[in-house]
Design a protein that fits this description.
Layout (H helix, E strand, L loop, with lengths): L4 H11 L18 H6 L2 H6 L16 H13 L3 E5 L2 H14 L3 E5 L4 H10 L2 E5 L2 E3 L4 E4 L2 H10 L5 E5 L6 E3 L1 H10 L3 E5 L23 E4 L1 H4 L7 E5 L8 H8 L6 H15 L2 H20 L5 E2 L7 E3 L3 E5 L5 H12 L5 E2 L4 E4 L6 H18 L23 H6 L2 E4 L1 H4 L8 E2 L6 E3 L7 H9 L10 E4 L2
Parallel strand pairs: 2-3, 6-8, 8-9
Antiparallel strand pairs: 1-10, 4-5, 7-12, 9-10, 11-13, 13-15, 14-15, 16-19, 17-18
Helix pairs in contact: 1-11, 4-11, 5-6, 5-10, 12-14, 13-14
The structure holds pyridoxal-5'-phosphate.
The site of pyridoxal-5'-phosphate has 12 residues, from helix 5.
């Protein structure tokens, strides 16, 4: 049996001294723009093949792609797995098209924007669910199981749920209880596991939703595993029964998938299948040590799960300081130590660690944090604003798809009161939208906007639907 079928086919093709009479136009690396020729290895171009004889077809795989996907499903204990070359976004959209076309779907407010795009494409009828925040850190955790139960009773005809687990910050919030409620009530569950591709690989990590009975799970391998950016995977759970998901992926994915991306998924899967658990074991021990060291600092804090309701991903470090904002902390790491965090918000910055190896990075990070901690000693406390928790969801006037396609105009805030929003109003990505297209800019929304005009970037007006 082949160990990595896509990679092996690519290599075999190279051994035949092929002459390219096909796409792409760089002809197997014979024509390379000079600036790239100097900087990119020739092999990159040679591996950048297309769907020619002996390779396979992503839309209708019968050869190496099919075999590589089958091996992926086996490793992840899925019914079947599909390689995605346009990130998790495309998998989320396909999943919503498959399970919520013109029908209701429970959508917690903290979902990624690709979910909202999926709702528009599928003309779905979102039933938005309020989410719980961590008030100290200012980030959303997810929905409460009790809230889900309540909304299921209120909307018994809604049979699909989509949730993000883990969150961007690496938190799995009450996921076992939520899954139990959803499955007990016969919901089909789509899990956006963009940030949790590695969870299934080790027993000490929060559980992957596949093991909890989710029907469709989509993972951005490129976020936490060693693959190229955009390479993601959609898994169907063993209990999935529903439309053929490949029909929707065909609708949305390119007909010219990059074999660089596909080969990176194939190579990664082979790597994961080879004793990955032992490598992760070693890494978790090292991370435990740096986490303990960070906890001993005086001016830098790290997010720790306050109780058993939260499970945290050890590879995510949420760092904050009472002396500087998250933006400033990220800037210090970047400017002084060349360490580029994943993202920063007012209260924290987020660092994603590799799931294996990178001892040198851990040492460099620790030195940087220690030096910054010493320097911050002289600073006075930073005047953090209280975390604003949105405790209301505006009334829906029209479905998000309808609002999206309707003509719109831009008006000043005072004229927007009572109108239907034509666009999202979000403080800062990846924040939770205050308003999504189709919702009414009512008094509560108006007041919130009035208090934070610059944060919502509405100095130039607000897009509203012309009715
Ligand atoms: C929670 C969440 N879901 C989905 C996505 C989309 O993933 P991708 O970038 O792989 O399309 C992201 C990307 O940042 C995300 O943070």
């Amino acid at each position: 049996m082949k160990k990595a079928p896509i990679i092996e086919n690519l290599l075999n093709h190279g051994h035949n001294n092929p002459f390219s009479g096909h796409t792409p136009g760089h002809k197997g690396g014979q024509i390379i723009p000079p600036l790239l020729e100097k900087n990119w290895p020739r092999e990159i171009w040679q591996f950048d093949l297309t769907e020619i004889e002996n390779m396979d077809n992503l839309h209708n795989p019968t050869g190496c792609i099919r075999e590589a996907q089958r091996m992926t499903a086996e490793l992840f204990n899925a019914k079947s797995s599909y390689f995605l070359v346009n990130g998790t976004s495309v998998g989320i959209q396909a999943a919503i098209l498959a399970l919520a076309y013109q029908s209701p779907i429970f959508v917690p407010r903290n979902v990624h924007k690709s979910v909202y795009s999926g709702l528009i494409l599928a003309d779905a009828q979102p039933v938005y669910l309020p989410v719980t925040y961590d008030k100290n850190w200012g980030f959303p955790l997810g929905i409460e199981p009790e809230t889900l139960k309540h909304w299921i009773e209120k909307y018994p005809h809604c049979k699909t749920l989509i949730i993000t687990n883990p969150t961007y910050q690496g938190l799995s919030y009450k996921i076992e209880e939520i899954m139990a409620v959803a499955l007990d009530h016969g919901l089909k569950v789509i899990i956006d596991e963009a940030h949790g591709s590695h969870l299934a690989l080790h027993k000490d990590l929060p559980p992957s939703a596949l093991s909890l009975g989710a029907h469709i799970v989509i993972q951005s391998w490129h976020k936490t595993l060693p693959v190229l950016t955009q390479a993601s995977v959609l898994h169907l759970g063993k209990n999935y029964s529903g439309p053929d998901i490949s029909q929707y992926l065909k609708l949305l994915q390119t007909t010219s998938p990059s074999y660089l991306l596909l080969a990176s998924l194939d190579g990664c899967r082979a790597f994961l299948a080879d004793n990955i658990s032992e490598l992760i074991d070693e890494k978790i021990i090292k991370i435990k040590k740096i986490r303990e060291d960070i906890s001993s600092l005086s001016n830098i804090k790290m997010f720790q799960a306050p109780d058993r309701a939260y499970k945290t991903d050890p590879f995510k470090l949420c760092l904050s300081s009472p002396k500087v904002s998250g933006y400033q902390l990220a800037e210090l790491l970047r400017e002084r130590f060349g360490i580029y965090p994943e993202m920063a918000e007012e209260r924290y910055c987020l660092i994603i660690l590799a799931v294996v190896h990178d001892q040198r990075f851990l040492e460099r990070l620790w030195k940087a944090l220690k030096a910054i901690d010493d320097e911050l000693e002289q600073y006075s406390p930073y005047p953090f604003l209280p975390v604003g928790e949105q405790d209301f969801i505006p009334q829906t006037k029209m479905l998000i798809r309808e609002a999206f396609f309707r003509p719109k105009e831009r008006v000043i805030l005072e004229k927007a009161l009572g109108r239907t929003a034509g666009d999202f109003l979000i403080k800062y990505p990846p924040g939770i939208p205050l308003v999504v297209p189709g919702e009414v800019i009512d008094e509560a929304v108006f007041q919130t906007l009035q208090n934070s005009i610059s944060e919502y970037k509405i100095e130039d007006g607000i897009s509203v639907v012309i009715e």
